[in-house]
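Quick log. Single chain, no ligands specified.
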Amino acid sequence: MHPLKLILACAAVPLLGGCLAKTVVDVATAPVKIVSKGVDMATTSQSEADEKRGRELRKREERLGKLERDYRKLNEQCHDGSDKACDKRDEVGREMDALAGTSPARDDD
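-> predicted structure:
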């Protein structure tokens, strides 16, 4: 073997040892990392559940607000003599009652 190649090979051995050790550690910890990532993806954190519930509550409140505005408008039209508005007002009122009686589900695990 050429003396220069021998010197380079000897100098590279300590550097390769670190690479090999890191590779062994990476291979050994890979299953743990994969399983923990799967668990993270499969479960919902409390803050995520709270955010989802908050979004659902806001959407419900927005819908109730729109229905209330529609109800007032239709009620005025009904008092002005529109039978069609009276029917629609009653329909909106039933939807408001149904929506007011519900709330988004809570995850109490």
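The mean pLDDT is 78.
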